[in-house]
Design goal:
about 625 residues; alpha+beta; Immunoglobulin-like; 6-stranded mixed sheet; 4-stranded antiparallel sheet; 10 helices; about 30% strand
Length: about 625
């Protein structure tokens, strides 16, 4: 029941306000409950858009641009973070339908802190920071029970959220437990509520509350929320939601902007007396970029206890918090330069110094094909020692190879090899070829290779992952690291699909590569060619009576010539300029394209001294 909805205009409006205002937290200088009161004074008095206004807010605050990325409503009670959602919602007929007999009927508004706690009073009843869109059936099942850890479930939703008996220390009632991916989100909503309504919360009766205006929570439930906050750090989804709500309400959830405030106010699980900050992250690099996103990697920090996460900043604004050493910043502006750095933090809230700052410019909105870095473009694992690797430079400028190394993991286990260092400069549009020095001459001449070697990196088999490293950081991979004995590519030639323009640390054979039979070597070291012109017709003809038909979806297409006896040559280029087919001395032709992936291609037809370029789209 996936129903799509256009959010483009609203998203443009939202991202115009997608920054923490300068000086917003300048007065948040204290610790403990003093800091909590300072935050209350910053975020109180927000704009009340009314209860009905929540559905308008959800158009930008709760859109799935992070999992399926399909523009549907992101519902924490039905979203499957690691697979296909059981059902999906958008605005319109699937909201407030009044019929919640089964999951998937329609969605409504879930108060994480139930309305009955504050007698449906304003502005609490319409505060989007703790009111989310959720499936109506699951919302009803949750009812007004507290959030906590379940001992024995009496109901489990289709995404794994549970209702059941409590395993929270000292509380024997019923609790509702969300899936792990959203526990931190919900904990930070509770911390927001305790801070935003510090002036009234002491008067609210709820099993999770202790009747105070400072601590707010009972010790048992506070420990649950602190654990959830620590185990599920701030995500890009929360940051985007916080920005969108700020654009509507003019206040922010400070525990998303500054997760360390939680431990500074309520303590948390940080070791007593831990004042040592982690070391700064190193080797920060951009591995992939688009017009609206930048993907990063870095080398892990160290700490005397443990590093719990990393804050990623662009132009001095916190963009996302992650637990690993890679991150993707989304919602950026095309053709814009960003200064990016990363900070590490530990459980005590200690924050490292900044990593080195790198400058990254997003692609233009119309950019197609320009790669963000070098990448593997061909892999040959053939008979005997017919083994070769090809690296392509489609970045638009020359690249020094001194920072790059190729490494291999043997038989899907153990560590990466020491590495085969590369050297020299690779011009844009060119290929760098490394072959096993015993490769058959019928496959490829070693004299045409950039490197001919018997190094272990060129003795790979079908289960040996091969990686391209830049400054010691993996940026591209063929195969799965620690993939075991399973062969991912044996007796095969792999060529990178023309649609892949950036390196990837995750290997996906079907979406990234075209496969060819063993010892297919004819494309190795081919140079990137530039078409001189592109015509926009999908079925094309010209004044010389050269006709191409039909526009292929698969199989073949035809080139019909004039009646002259002159021969001609045909090249097919990807939209990035990579040559994927070549044949010469033809007088008529039916060209097979069943080996090409979907996309746009340029046909370059040369007859005598004249060259004609045509465009085809394989659908």
């Amino acid at each position: 029941m996936k129903k799509l909805y256009s959010f483009s205009l609203l998203l443009c409006v939202t991202f115009g306000f997608a920054q923490i205002p300068s000086g917003y937290y300048n007065t948040a200088t204290g610790t403990g409950y003093t800091l909590k009161t300072q935050l209350y004074n910053i975020i109180k008095g927000h704009t009340n858009n009314g209860y009905a206004g929540l559905y308008t807010t959800y158009l930008t605050s709760d859109v799935d641009n992070f999992y399926e990325n399909d523009g549907t409503i992101l519902d924490m009670y039905s979203e499957n973070p690691s697979g296909t959602d059981p059902y999906n919602y958008t605005t319109g007929t699937t909201q407030r339908c009044g019929s919640y007999s089964v999951e998937g009927d329609c969605y409504n508004r879930e108060h994480i802190i139930p309305q009955s706690v504050f007698n449906e009073a304003s502005p609490m009843v319409a505060d989007a920071h703790f009111i989310t869109p959720t499936d109506g059936k699951v919302n009803g099942i949750r009812s007004n029970y507290p959030h906590g850890t379940v001992n024995s479930a009496t109901y489990t939703s289709q995404n794994g959220s549970k209702l059941g008996s409590s395993s929270v220390s000292g509380y024997s009632g019923t609790v509702f437990e969300p899936v792990n991916a959203f526990k931190g989100d919900i904990a930070r909503m509770y911390f927001y509520f305790a801070t935003r309504y510090e002036n009234t919360v002491a008067g609210y009766s709820f099993p999770m509350f202790d009747g105070s205006s400072n601590k707010v929570f009972t010790t048992a439930f506070l420990n649950v929320l602190l654990a959830w906050h620590s185990q599920d750090p701030v995500s890009a989804r929360e940051i985007a939601r916080n920005n969108a709500i700020y654009a509507r309400q003019n206040n922010r959830n400070p525990f998303i902007d500054h997760p360390e405030y939680v431990n500074q106010i309520w303590g948390g699980t940080a070791p007593s007396g831990d004042t040592q900050a982690p070391t700064a992250p190193t080797s920060l690099a951009s591995t992939t970029k688009t017009a609206t996103s930048i993907t990063l990697s870095w080398t892990a920090s160290t700490d005397n206890v443990a590093v719990t996460g990393y804050d990623v900043y662009a132009n001095s604004v916190l963009k996302t918090t992650v637990t690993g050493t890679t991150a993707t910043i989304t919602g950026l502006t095309a053709s814009t330069a960003y200064s990016i750095y990363v900070k590490a933090k530990d459980a005590a809230g200690n924050t490292s110094a900044s990593s080195s700052t790198i400058a990254v410019t997003t692609n233009s909105s119309g950019t197609s094909g320009t790669a963000t870095d070098l990448l593997f473009s061909e892999y040959i694992e053939g008979s005997g020692n017919n083994k070769a690797l090809e690296i392509a430079n489609n970045t638009g400028s020359s690249v020094s190879l001194s920072a790059y190394t190729i490494k291999k993991q043997t038989n899907g286990a153990g560590s990466w090899s020491t590495g085969l260092a590369l050297s020299g400069t690779l011009a844009t549009g060119s290929k760098f070829v490394i072959v096993n020095s015993s490769i058959s001459s019928s496959c490829f001449s070693t004299s045409s290779a950039n490197i001919s070697t018997t190094a272990t990196e060129l003795t790979f088999n079908g289960n040996d992952a091969v990686g391209l490293f830049k400054n010691g950081t993996l940026i591209d991979i063929i195969g799965t690291f620690s993939g075991g004995t399973a062969n991912f590519a044996i007796d095969v030639t792999l060529r990178r699909k023309s649609t892949v323009t950036s390196p990837s640390t995750t290997f996906n054979l079907n979406s990234q590569w075209d496969s060819f039979s063993s010892d297919t070597c004819n494309n190795l070291a081919s140079k990137k060619a530039q078409p001189t012109a592109i015509e926009e017709e999908e079925i094309v003809s010209d004044s010389d009576n050269i006709i191409i038909y039909p526009n292929p979806s698969n199989g073949n297409f035809n080139i019909v010539l004039d009646n002259s006896a002159a021969s001609y040559s045909v090249e097919i280029l990807s939209i990035t300029g990579l040559k994927v087919f070549e044949k010469s001395d033809l007088t008529d032709a039916v060209i097979s394209v069943d080996h090409l992936s979907k996309g746009t291609y340029i046909i370059k037809i040369t007859k005598e001294s004249k060259t004609i370029n045509k465009k085809i789209i394989i659908k």
